[in-house]
Amino acid sequence: MYEKTYPSKRFNITLDFLKKHISTSETIFDLGVPNPFSKIMEDNGYKVINTKGEDLDTNQEALRTENYDVFTGFEIFEHLLNPYTVLENVKADKVLISIPLRLWFSSAYRSKTDKWDRHYHEFEDWQLDWLLEKTGFKIVDSVKFTHPVKKLGLRPLLRWITPRYYLVYAERIK
C-alpha cells in the first residue's frame, strides 16, 4: 500500500481499522493539521476536516463548530496537556484514537530540535480507556501492535516484541 513513502505498518493497520468501523459517507474531523495520514484517508474516499494549528489545549472551538460524524486523533493525544478537555468537546458519537504506548525500557519522547514535538503523556492502555470512559465513550474495538526498527541492539529487539501503539474505536454512551 504505502510501503515506500509512509510508515507502512502503522498506517496500514490504522487504515484497515478505520475501514472496518467507518463508512466513507461519514465526515471525519481529524485532530491536528493536515498530515500524511489525513491524505491517506482522503485518497481512500474519506472526507477529512483538520484543525488549523491552534493550541488545542486552550482552544476547542473547531470541535464545537465544524460539522463531522467521526472524530479521529492519531498520535496526537500524547502531545496535549489536557486531552480530557478535547474529548469533552467532541460532538461526534464515534471516535478513533491511537497513541504510542509507554515503554518501560525507553523514556518519554522529546525532540531536541523542535520545542513542540514532545510527549507530555506516555499512556498505558488503561489510561486511554479510562479517559474515554470519563468523557462518555465506550470502547467497541481495540488493537495493539509493535513498531520494529531496522537497528541492532537491545531496544530494537524489544520493539519487535513489545506493543508500541494502541488504537481504539469507541462510541458515545447515550
Q: Describe the sheet with the most strands.
A: 6 strands, mixed
Determine and state the CATH class: Alpha Beta
Instruction: Give the spatial strand order of the biggest sheet.
Output: 2-1-3-4-6-5
Helix content: 25-40%
Number of discrete domains? 1
Mean pLDDT: 85
Radius of gyration: 16 Å
- Total strands: 6
Structural class: alpha/beta
First and last CA, distance: 37 Å
Q: Strand-residue fraction?
A: 15-25%
Q: Under the CATH scheme, which architecture would be assigned?
A: 3-Layer(aba) Sandwich
Give a written overview of the molecule.
- A six-stranded mixed beta sheet has the order 2-1-3-4-6-5, with helices on both faces.
- The chain has 174 residues and is α/β, with parallel strands linked by helices.
- Helix content is 29%, strand content 21%.
- It is built from six helices and six strands.
- The protein is globular and about 50 Å long.
- It has a single domain (8-172), classed as Rossmann fold (3-Layer(aba) Sandwich), CATH 3.40.50.
- It comes from Flavobacterium urocaniciphilum.
- This is Methyltransferase domain-containing protein.
